[in-house]
Each structure stands twice: as structure tokens, then as C-alpha cells.
Amino acid sequence: MNSEPVYSELYRLGSLGASLIDAIDELVVAQKLEPQVGAQVLRQFDKTMDRGFVGHTKAKMTAKAKLRTYRLCDNVWTFDLRNVTFTMDNREKVEAKRMKIVAVSADPKDTSRKKDD
């Protein structure tokens, strides 16, 4: 049984994660990096991104929207919103016709994110 935490791979979908994957792929194809090392780099990226925001975000905002759908699967919440208005701390407003929010628990005590072998 392995109690090592499993980190979200969600950040790989962003531009930074996609660029890292492309760079690793190029190095592996050019035989300048072993595939196992590339996988290890991606796991470290997941860990760093997953933990990087915990306790570092102080900004607050309020949101008003029409909730179209929501779901919870494997401790990941997905919200599909319409006619969204975010109001920031400084009263600045950001609006969008459609928005999808994907949220993963950041609670380090959350045991549902542990990997069992």
C-alpha cells in the first residue's frame, strides 16, 4: 500500500503545462532525456502546481451567474455557468457569457486524493 499523495494533472492542460510536455517530448524523441525522467519531471510539476496556490492567494471576489450544470466526480467539481459576473475586491467587474470552472480539493487532510496500490 502506497500512501503517497496523487496530485492533480489539471495544470498540464494550461499553456505552461502544455509547453513543458512539448519540451519533454522533443528531448525524449531526440534521445536526450529518458522517458522515465520526463515522467518524473511531470509528476514534480503536478506537485508544485498543486501545492503552489495553497495559502498564497489572498484576493477575494464574488460571483453571480446562472448555474447550468454541476457535477462531482473523483473529488473534482465541475460547474458550467452562464451570464457570469465576477466582482473583485476593488469593485472591478469581469463578465462572460459562458464559463466552466473545475475545482479540486486543496485540503491536505483529504484522504480521497491518496493513491492505494
Automatic annotation (TrEMBL):
Zinc-finger in keyword set: no
Query: Tell me, what does this protein do in biology?
Result: TFIIA is a component of the transcription machinery of RNA polymerase II and plays an important role in transcriptional activation. TFIIA in a complex with TBP mediates transcriptional activity.
Residue ranges of the Transcription initiation factor IIA gamma subunit N-terminal domain?
7-50
Q: What is this protein called?
A: Transcription initiation factor IIA subunit 2
Q: Which BP terms does GO give this entry?
A: transcription initiation at RNA polymerase II promoter
Instruction: Report the source organism.
Output: Cercophora newfieldiana
Subcellular location(s) per record: Nucleus
Residues in domain Transcription initiation factor IIA gamma subunit C-terminal? 64-104
